Amino acid sequence: MRFRSIRGTAVTAALCVAMSAQLTQPVLAAPEKSGEPRYSAGSASVGDPYFPNQGNGGFDVQHYDIAFSYDPATKHMDATTTITALATQDMDQFNLDFQGPEISALSVGKHPADFRRDGQELIVTPRPKVKVGETFTVTVKYAGTPPVITDPDGSIEGWVPTDDGAFVAGEPQGAPSWFPGSDHPTDKATFTFHATVPEGLTAVGNGQLLSKTTKDGRTTFVWDSTEPMATYLATVTIGNFQVNETKTSAGIPVYTAVDPRLVSQSAATVARIPEIVDYLSSVFGPYPFASTGAIVDRAPNVGYALETQTKPIFSSSPSLGTMVHELAHQWYGDSVSPTRWSDIWLNEGFATYSQWLWTEHTGGITAQQTFNNSSNYGRAATSAFWQTITADPGPVDMFGSVPYNRGAMTLHALRGKVGDAVFFPLIKGWAAERKFGNASTRDFIAYAEKTSGMDLTNFFDVWIFQKGKPTTW
Ligand code: TRP
Ligand code: ZN
């Protein structure tokens, strides 16, 4: 789904197509003069240099329906994923991204289709062929153990088994471990999950819980993620969980699931979610989604947290700062997602800066003091830290300290440059203008220049495009 909004107002699907045609690349191929379809293969990737296999061309995913049963004892998954997509060209072949277990059947609409697999690429030959403008479904049945994926920096993601279930995280390339799709942040879609697990365990997905039914010793959880979501933000995490439901003061439902072994350590932080969401809403604008919450799991081999949409996931008991960080990502990262992975500082810089603001808001050191400290501007000019380019850190360092800390420093320096009276409306306006969409570094610069009325070429040059410790800006 290529979903954009104007001044925070959701637009219709038809208008979306027209708008993205105008604002990004044409979505629908021009009709042939003769009116005869001209079939070709959809592209195998969107061409993101950090992950060249990610995403696909020729169609735009609208919805994923992912139904599976999983048994932690055997690590066996039995799954059927149905993708609803809009064809953006006449296609005699298209690709999906998939690294999951063996496929037993695949159909396009009602018709079984030929397919082959080549690494992450699942290559499908639909018959009848698919015409531009057609909404079609792809149903993939598969079973086995989903693989753990290793990232360029050595960390793990995808479907990660734990001692009582599975920790499921997909940034930047783990989603194809457990469902086929178009795995790039520019192809957002809505999701429904039907997860069946042994009775007693809880399966926690993005969005709202529609139903929970137990039969013959197994419980099915149905979760509905009603706003567009990038594939990397999808989760259905399984385990023994203590569940709690409450609401923020604005009435947003809060669903938390905490591993019983981590309840005493994490209770104080988890209890502050409503207060954090309220505070962040006051700075960033209305919370973008229909619900919020958190999943606190025990996955010691993962070691990081992820801003999974509506319910960030933690692989151990989170600090208050990490909780603030992941909730801030709901605005910056989840609702407004990067156009390319090189834009990751827009995610991590905002989430880190939100921690600085929270610390000041709750009576700790000021954002200026955090800016100055030895993890940030206080680092020596000779430090290797200053040698990574913020707006292009590369796949190995995309979750290193530079997109986080230099990204946050960039935002604080921008605040100093344009003044509070421009900066705070700017970051709110950015979240509203790009709600449920994507944005690049260039888009952010253009927005900051428009909002401030200033030429910020040199500012962004020294902060995000050049190496070296900035001295004047
Ligand atoms: N985006 C996550 C955060 O900032 C961190 C993260 C996601 C990560 N995937 C990763 C860190 C892979 C290291 C490796 O909270
Ligand atoms: Zn982050």
Question: How would you explain this protein's 3D organization?
Answer:
It is a single chain. With 473 residues, the protein is an alpha+beta fold. The chain folds into three domains: 10-240, Sandwich (Immunoglobulin-like), CATH 2.60.40; 245-328, Zincin-like (2-Layer Sandwich); 341-465, Neutral Protease, domain 2 (Orthogonal Bundle), CATH 1.10.390.10. The chain is built from ten helices and 26 strands. The strands form seven sheets. It has an eight-stranded mixed sheet, with no helix packed on it. A five-stranded mixed sheet has the order 20-21-22-24-23, covered by helices on one side. Strands 3-6-10-9 form a four-stranded mixed sheet, with no helix packed on it. A hairpin with a 2-residue loop joins β7 (103-108) and β8. α4 (320-328) packs across α5, α7 packs antiparallel against α10 and α8 packs across α9. The two termini are 38 Å apart. Residues 3-26 have low confidence and may be disordered. Tryptophan is lined by residues 151, 153, 155, 171, 304-307, 325-326, 348, 351, 399.
Features of this protein?
Immunoglobulin-like; alpha+beta; Neutral Protease, domain 2; globular; Zincin-like; binds tryptophan; disordered N terminus
